[in-house]
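Support request, please re-run this one:
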Amino acid sequence: MIEPTTSFRKRADARYRNIGGEGIVVRQTVGEVLVVSEVGARVLDLVDSGLPVSGMLARLAAEYDVDGASLERDVAAYLQELVDAGVIEVVAT
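Re-run finished. Output below.
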């Protein structure tokens, strides 16, 4: 379960680049390439910064016009998708 205090990091085999607002993720061990949206790329940038989920939510709320409940739900779901896809892993909860 993803909590406000949960922190993530990219997995060792995941390479990520933000190119013109789009994110490109390469999972080297499985030869998979994922393209993520501008907001998805921003979340990955925040994962790289080491912020816990609460910090990510605060930054995103300041940057995008979205209600807090939707933001929290959507970010948690996206982070879980990244975990399930093997792109990121939990560092601490």
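The beta strands are 7-10, 14-19, 22-27, 32-36, 88-92. Helices lie at 38-49, 53-63, 68-84.
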